[in-house]
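The instructor's notes for this session suggest beginning with a concrete chain rather than abstract definitions. Hand out the sequence below and ask the class to guess, before any prediction is shown, which regions might be ordered.
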Amino acid sequence: PLCVEPRRFAAGSATGSAGSTAGSGATQTSGATSASSGTAQAGGTSSSTTSSVLPNTPDERHAATDVTIRDASGASLQLSSITSNGKPTIVNFWATWCPYCRTELEEMNGIVAEYSDRVNFVPIDSVDGTRETMQSGLDFFADKDYTFPTYFDTDNRAAVIAYNASSLPTTIVIDRNGNLVGYHAGLMKTDTITAVIDALLAE
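After discussion, reveal the predicted structure:
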């Protein structure tokens, strides 16, 4: 994956089957993969109205693809075991070699204290076995004072492929019902993340 600058938060598609992507129809913009166009309309958040932040309504969403990830102990678990607790979920694909990823983790750490009781935060280290290993991710987190754990995609980058995270960082947003809301390729700043979270919590 490339390490890219910010791109717009946009709608994604998911069927819930293995191999479905978060951003089908993604286009190449300024040398990096950007989200397919998904303009949001102004208005309140409800099942029939798209909010000014979220790119779709709850009725337009489909189940997010379930993938296998590993925790810091190496134990495997399903992403759905986290997303099924009735809270919105922010999934963030990252790697230690990516400077924008490191910046975004700092941004995320700054808002976890406010939202951790209402939102799941799931950073997933994109492990390729060469440039990025599980140990390098563990060492990176050990040097930080992050208040959230990280998870690892160690199965030949199956989670990265399933969510089409061809550039890092990539953020995937899942609603409280386990449905895919959208994705953002590139650094997602605090004001954008919090606006998305607030809109999800208001649904």
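Then share the key points. Confidence is low (pLDDT under 50) at residues 13-50. Residues 7 and 113 are 26 Å apart (CA to CA).
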